[in-house]
Every structure is written in structure tokens, then in C-alpha cells.
Structure prediction request, 706 residues.
Amino acid sequence: MSTLVHLMVKNTFTKKPVDSGYLYIIRQKGSPYKIKIKDGKTLSPVACRQTYDMFYSSTQLDSKVPLIPEKFIQKVNIGPPRTKESLYEIYVNIFPVAYVKFEVWNQENNTYKPLPAGIEVLLMPKRYSRDELLKAQTDSNGSVVFNIESIAGELAKIKKPDVFFCAKTDNKKINNTILPKEWSTYGWKTPDNKPGNFGYAALYKGMGSESAPLIYRIGVDFHIRILSTPASANNPRRGLEDMPFSIWRGISALGKIYEGKLDSQGEVHGTFFDIKHDSTLYFRLHFELEDKTIHMNKAYAYVEHGKLVQDYIWDSLLPDQDGRLYSINGNSSFGTQSNPYIIPTSVPQRRGGFAILKYYKELSLFLYYMTNKTWKGFPSLKYRHSVGSFAAIKGVVHLETSDLRHRGTILHETAHQVMWHTLDISTLKILSEGAKPIGGIYRKHDRPSIYNPYHALIEGWADFFERIFDINPVLRNFHFKDDSSKAHLLQTYPANTGESVEGAVSSGLWRIYNRFVLLRNNPRASGITESTNGDITQNNPWIKDSSFIKRFMKIIWQPFTSLAPKSAPTSIDYFNAIRKANTEKWHEMVSELNELNMYLRTPKFARISPSQGPKAGGQKITISGDEFVDGRMEVHFILHKIVTAGIQRESYSKGKNVKVINSKTLTVITPAINISSAVDVRIIVISNIPEFTENFVVKKDAYTYT
Prediction:
């Protein structure tokens, strides 16, 4: 016979009523009674027998209380009834279940990947204890479930338990990431800021749920973007792809915990494991760049390291405005994939280092593709901070502070290095030529200055490459300065003076490159736009075009490399090499040079065919010779000479429709005359430079009018 009683259900360990909100079921021999409990008291009477099974239902009455699986059954001995209204106290071991999930950063797809199934996870009682309380294995979702009730007795014996989880990852490899031997949650936090170690209080309240387990990440995943300030949306300055980046703890040489390289966005994403939750970190950025796939050997940009020494490494522990030390303090993520942590740099040398390496890559890409991959790069190249900008030492470029981010100067000085390495000019040769008072490399110069054809080639070549990348190229004026800095007009000097002027040589090369390589008619056409990450081919895809490459090789590069045997090549040597390789187009190319007072040669006259024709004119004749220039030729038919008082005068008519076929052949339509006679024929190269005497040649009695 049963008696209806009220039950007071208390926790064995706390001696306090159990939490509200669960639906309890008391069952005897398969016949369940459903009861509700509030503040430990049953809200409905139950028939009391000697022994009952009591368990939690999967139904929740209060959404704030986590669910507990029905499989965890508590056996309860109620005992004999007292009176009808008696309130029976029963004690049950009510412990929640721990739901835990482990995951690790997956850099292959930029997401978090759960641990694979079968990883053993231990529930540990104290930080320094090696005795586990429970074991479980992860499922396919990286999750484990612990029934805390099963260790209630053991927990009761532990003084001040500090329970945490330990995943035995055993150096397994997941998505190319080698996990540590084990990973403890002690001191680490979940993404929603819940602790990784806890005492009794947390156990009583429950840890996670089946649908929302506690998530712990293996290692610290970090997401960092290196940014130079100031920067704009149109001109971002940031770390470059493949710049080495490392993260360190402490100051020991053994303190490196991560080593990698920046990606194409100037960012680094990864995970490291050799770290404690309260470690203090700093990072190290190497200002060096290398890409063997484009023959870009390693280059270093020296940045200020402290105040006395130059180095190409920036440690963020330096005590300056960019100094940064980071304390992890239990956070298992440092930034996110979509919102990385920004590390700004403001020291001029560091900001300049980003620009230097970017422009170095731009030039390397241009040379790699436009030379049809024959440019093998520098053995190594170092950019140093200096007083003044120069490239007098092979393999070293010196830049002053004002030029650290000046694209034109950086490319100009690097182009000098292209010449030193391509033509095998040694540092000793460079320095000795710079020491010559006359005929060598002039150390004080500006672009339009006049010195000698050797200097003009060296500086003109570098200035030419500066123009290739200049989005606003300016055609230089062609005055020159003497040693007293007095300015003189270039055209007052003899023919070919322009070949001794660095500005004229660079402009001449630019005109030839622009018109015959790029096939542009405007000499002020813009150059290669600046990239954001060094890859100029993104906005200038023509650099990879085989037709552009073929023309650059024939017109610019191969003539340049042919100068290698010469100990002191000049601008005249270079233009002669261009002529030799491009005879079919030279008459057009030389016209661009003549525009700048260069390669002004006296034409040569061989023969006329036919050599006679009607007085009415209109006959097309062909003249053969040499040094004919497209668009600059006149043919004069000299009719007769008048001598008066000892003064000789001449009268002539100009031929019509002069067309230069090539540098050795032109055609012209004869003018009409009123006599039958043999006449002299004069071929003249017209100069557009004021006060300059044209070059010409006369062949006597070369053509006969009949």
C-alpha cells in the first residue's frame, strides 16, 4: 500500500535543494510518475514505495537550465513513509554533464576545423596533477561528453579542485599543421570568454550543452596585418608578400614560437602552440624579399634598429613609437581572418623599407618578363640609409631619408645596379671612374647636365628606367651647367652634343622605347602605374605580352647587353648597337634622337636613279646613300650660281614628297625647271634646333634635266 508524500530533493554535496526547471520522473517497475520540482520541493504528490529510480528528463521547463541526458540515472532510497503530510528529504548526486569541443585554425580554408574523431581527452583535477579523473574520445565533430556524476566521490575527496581538460593531440598533423603532444585548457578561454579551468561552482551549474558545447581552440591562432602609416586607399603601404615574419616570447634566442611569411595582403595568419596563457609576446619583421620564380634574388632594406645601428630586422620590443608588446592573457585568437589586428609603422626608415622592397619587386618583374626571362637578377642587393642617394658600390644602394619612399629615385639607383651587373662593371671601376677629373663619372650632376658620353650613358640609362615607371613623364629641357653653375643653351655646341647630356640620352631612349616598343606616338605618355604589392602586371598586363617582349629585347635589351665587352661604354656605343640590331627601323629611330641633338650625322650620297628627266619635273627618283632620317630630309636641286662682286650665290628648287624608305634609301619627286642642264643635288638633314647648322652633302651634276 502506498502513501502520497511530498519530497524535498537535495544535492548530496551542497546539501541544498536542486535547481528548478527540470522535469523529473520517478519510476517504479516501469510505471513513471512525472513531477515538477521548484526550490527542491515537488509540486505534485507521489505514491511512496521503498526504492525508486529517479532521472532527469530531456524536456526543459526553463530554457536557462541546460539539458541532461536521460541515460544518467540516479537511484534513490526514499525509505518508509511517516505521515500523510510528511515532507521527505532525499539526497541525490546531481552533477551536470560537461560538453566540450576542440578545434584548430585551418589555414587552408581560413576556418576552424574540429579535431578528428578518436583524440583522447582527459578531465584533470589540478594543474600540476597527472592523474586524470575521466577519459573520453572526440567524435567526428571534435566533441566529447563527460558524465561528472560518475566521479562525484573522487571530486569530494579533492581539496580545492581546479578542473580542466587536456587533449592528447600526440603531434598529429591536421591540414599541414603539426599539433603539439598535448594541449591543456588551463588558463585559456573559450571564444565567448568562459574559463578553461574551474572548481565546484562551475560543475554544479553545468558546462555547455549538447547543442552549444564549450569550445576550446588548440594553440593560439593569429591574424595580423602590417600597415605603414600614413597610407591612403589609392596608395596603401603595407608589408609585402613573402616578407619573413616571426613571433617571439621572452628575449632568449630560443624564444621563437612561430615563423612564416606575409601573404599578398601584407597579412600573416597562423597558429602557434609553444605558449602559456599569460605569456608576453613580440614580433620580428625582416625587411627582405626574395622570389626565385621571377629570378628575384634576396634584397634587404635596412631600417633603423635603435638609434646607432642599421639592420634589416624590426623587433617590436624596441622602445620607440612603434614598440609593441602583447600579453595573451588566455585569449586563443589574436584578431580574425576578416578583421585582422593592425600593426602600424610610423618610423620613416620602416615605412621606407616597405616602399623600397615594393619598387624592387616592380623592377624585377618588369625585367623578368620584358627580357624574356633572361635577366637573372642580382646575386643580392642591399638598400642602406645614408646621407645622400647613390649606387657607387656594386650590390649596395644608399638612400637618404627624403628618398626612402621616392619611387623615381629608388628605381633610378637600382637601375644603376642593373648596369653594373649586366655589363660586369666592378666597384673598383665605378669608384675609379668617379675619381677622374675629366672623362669619367661626374659625381655632381643633374639630369640635363653635360659631361661626356660615358657619364651620359650611365646616368641616362638610370634616368630612362625612372621614366619607364613615371606616370607623369616630363621631357627635360636641354641646357647644361658648367662648373660655375652657369647655364648654357645646348644647341650652341657642336653636333652630337646631346650624346654627352644625361637628360638628352634618357629622353632619347624613352622616345625610342615609347614609340617603337610600346607603339605610342605621344612622347609624354604615362609609364607603369604603381602597384599595391609589387605586382605591376595586374594593372599592366602587356608586360607579359610576347609582342612587347620581342620588341623590347631587340630594341633595348640585346643592344644593351652587347656593350658588356667594352670597359667604358658610351651613349654613342649604345646607339650604334641599337642601330645595328634595328637597321630596318633606324631611319625612324634616329629621327627621335635628332630631336634631342643626338646622332646628327652628315648624310652620304651614293647615286640617283634615274639620273635624268624632263624639265617639267614630276619624275620620281631614288637616291641611295646613308644616314637618311625619316621626316627630316630635304632634297635641293641647285639650278645655277651667280657670282657678283666676288660673292657666290645659288638658286635652287626643293624636291617634293621626300620619303625615307630606310637609312640608306629615299625617294623624291623632281621639281620643274626652265633649262636643260645638269644640276647639283644636295641632301640635307633639317634640324628643329634654332641656331644649329644643318648637316648636308652635295653631289655635283648628279641629275640632268632634258
